[in-house]
Specification:
Elements: H1 8-27, H2 36-43, H3 50-74, H4 77-96, H5 100-128, H6 131-162, H7 167-170, H8 172-186, H9 202-221, H10 231-253, H11 267-297, H12 302-307, H13 310-330, H14 335-351, H15 360-387, H16 394-431, H17 446-450, H18 454-486
Helix pairs in contact: 1-5, 1-6, 1-8, 3-5, 3-9, 3-16, 4-5, 4-8, 5-6, 5-16, 6-13, 6-15, 9-10, 9-16, 11-15, 11-16, 11-18, 13-15, 14-15, 14-18, 16-18
Amino acid sequence: MEMHALSRKAILTVFAALMISMFVGSLDQTIVSTALPTIVGELGAVNHMLWITTAYFLTSTITMPLYGKLSDLYGRKHLFCLAQVLFIIGSTICALGNSMTWLIAGRAIQGLGGGGQMILAQSIVADIFPPKERGKYMGIMGASFGVSMVIGPLLGGLFTEYLGWRWCFWINLPLGAIALGIAMVALPHRAHPDATAHAFDTAGTVCMSGSALCLILVTSLGGSTYPWTSPEIVGLLFGFAALVGAFIMVEYRAADPIIPLRLFCNRNFALCTAAGLIIMVAMAGVISYLPTYFQIVDGLDATVAGYMTLPMMGGMMLTSVVAGFVASKARSVKWMPILSSAIVSVALGLLATITVDTSLWQMGLMLFLLGFGIGIGQQILVLIVQNEFPVAIVGTATAANNFFREIGGTLGGSLIGSLFSTNLATKMGEYAGNMLGSVDANSLTPSLVRTLDEGTRTCVQHAYNDALAPVFAWLVPLTILAFVMLLFLKKKRLAETNQ
C-alpha cells in the first residue's frame, strides 16, 4: 500500500479516519477518571471501581502485539475495521449498562478494540507514507494522542456534570462509526504474500498475555486492595517473573514469534522503546495526581482543575506537529528525542520545587514546558523505530514499541501513586498530627478538605504538597537516564521509500 497507489484525496480521507480512531482509543484510557465517583455511586459498587479502568488497560495492552503481528501477516484493513466494531460494541454496552458487571465487561470489550486503534493507525501511516514523509503525519497523530490523554479527564468531568456519565461512552459511537465507514470504503487491503505459510505463535501469545496480566494486576492492586507484601501480590510477582522467562524461551525457539527477540538486537529499537517507556512513566504520574493536587492545595473545583492541564496539552500539540514537519524536512532526527528528554527532565525538576504558595501561572508554565518537551520526542521515537524495519514487519515493531509504552503508563500511574500515598501518610502525621482524628490520609477528598477548619486545612495542604513534590524529583533521574540512553542512538537518515 505505497503512497503512489492512493490519490491525494484518498490519503487525506484515510488519515482522517486514522486520527479519529487513535483519538477515541486513547481518550477512553482517561475520560472515565473524573466520572468514576459518580458511576460507582449510581451503580452502588465502590469496591469494584478499580476494575473500570483496569479492564480496559488489560485488554488493550495485551492485544497490541496481536494486532501488530496479525496485521503484518493478513493486512491492516480488516483488523482495523474489527477494532472499530469491538470498540463501538463495548462503548454501547458501557452506555447502556445498569450494573457494574456489565460496565466492566463493556470496558474489557472496548479495550479489545482500543488496543488495535492506536497500533493499526500508526502502522497504516507507515504503509502509506515513506519515512521521509511520515514524520509530519506522525507528528499530527502525536498531538492527537497527547490531547486525548490530557483532555480526557476534563471531558469526563464536563459530561458527568452536564449530560450524565453515560455520555463518556455515547460520544464514541458516532466517532467510531465515521472511522469504520471511511476505512471500509477508502482503505485498501494488503496482505502478506505468504501469510498462509506462517504458524501463529500461540505459546508466545499466552506467555506474553499472562505476564502483562500479572504486571498490570500487581500495579493496580498493590498498595491499595492488597498490601505489597501480601501473598496475592507476591504470587503475582512470581507469576510475572516465571511467565517472562517462559516467554523469552518460547520466542527464542518460535518460527514466527509474536514479539521477535531480534527486534531488541536493533540498537535504535531497544533505546527508543526504553526511552518511550520512561517518558510515559513520567507523563502518567503527572497527569494522574495534579488535578487532585489543584483541588486540595489550590481549592479549585474539579472542572477548573481539569482546565489546569490545558497548558500541558498546548505544549504537546505545538511541538508534536512542528517536530513532525521538521523531521520530514531535515530527515535527521536523532537530536529531537534527546532534546525532548532534556526538557522533560528540566520541567520535572521545576515541578519538584512547587510549594503551596506556587501560583497557578507558574504551575501552568511548568506544565507547558513539560508538554513542550514530551511533544518534541514521543512520536519521533516511533518514527525512528519504523525507519529501522521493512514494511513487512513494521506493524510488529510498532506494536512492540507501543506495548512497552503502555506498560510504562500503567507503571507510572500505579507506582507513583504508591510512593505518593506513603509520603502522604508520613507528612500528614508530621503536619496534622491528631487534628484529623480518625480520618485516613488516603481517603481525603477535596470536598472533605473544604469542610475542615482553616488551620487543619492549611496543614493538609502543606502535607499534600510536600508528599507530591518529591515524587517529581524522583522522576528526574529516570528521564536523565533516558537522555543518556538516547545519546547512543545510531544516526540514520529517514528513508526515501518504504523498504
